[in-house]
Amino acid sequence: MEPDSEAYLTAGVYWALIVVWAFIIYFYAREYRRVRRIRPALTVLLIVLFVDAGRTLFESIYFGMWCTAATPLLPQSLHELLELPQYVMIPKALNLIAALVVVLIIIGRWLPAMDKTLARQRRTQRMYTELRKAHQELQRSEEVREELMHMIVHDMRTPLTSILGGLETMARGEVGPDEQRDLLANACEDSEALLRMVNRLLDISRMEDGEMQLSLSEFSIIELVAEVTDGVHGLAATKNVRLEVEPPAEELNVTADRLAIRRVLDNLLGNAIKFVQEGGRVSITIAGDDEGGARISVADDGPGIPSELHERIFDKFFRTDMDETTTVPSTGLGLAYCKLAIAAHGGEIGVTSEPGHGAEFQFTIPTRPRQDSPS
Length: 375
Known about the structure:
single chain, alpha+beta, Helix Hairpins, Heat Shock Protein 90, 3 domains, five-stranded mixed β-sheet, elongated
């Protein structure tokens, strides 16, 4: 190949590179405008590529002109000029400047942008994990809800069957006056149990919707505890359970919904007696606080409650495995009612317990209930 032909070929290759790199720079600029608002890290990468492409384009133009000057297309003096060391250093110096610019861009923009992108990905992953967990919890709650609704229907059907059977027996005249009185007493007891269950469901629903109004009055918490203790004395006697009350040194009056607080105490004492072993002990401690409110605790020496269930036992319809081992049926509504009723007063309720060391439920009645209603 003739020397001129080699110069033409080399110059043609360089000018082809110039066209290609010009197109690449145009492509980078267009993509930068398109993605700069949605992918910050990618736009920084495009800037780095743009700087590198500009450096390569300038270098290609320099050597393209140098090679073209070796042909008759440009003056030979330009070829000799571009060969001088001080001019040859121009593309090399631009290479160094471009490299420094790229390093500064990486340190100043790329790394922070990548940190933000990674942080956003971690947040997305965390949200996805939480969403999946919430979905699983929702599925589990729906399964438990359906199972417990069947259980509640079954619990309601049992006393209804007893009531209906007793009434049918009396209607047929198959029993004498004494047996009729027993059947009527059983029917009344079963009816009251059904009414309590229905009322509890309605009260919980109203409390959750924030529609239940408290009927506030001032009363002695010591007298109320004594009434509740007398009411469960028969249940405790069937298991030979000792009931112990530790009252405060002075009279303690509170302003609250007396019926709601009584039902809270009924639930807590009933649960304690239900789970404690025969011959066990249940204690009720009453204490005042510095602001004029009251703190009541119900403790037993029963099997205790695992720490992972301390929050869940206050959920509606929640039942532990221990509920299956007792002869007293449980709907999983008692502690849910206690939590909502105490919260409606502006107080708090919680449990302290370890497996094998009994359980102690504590709740507070503040001086001024959160929800005011006429008494």
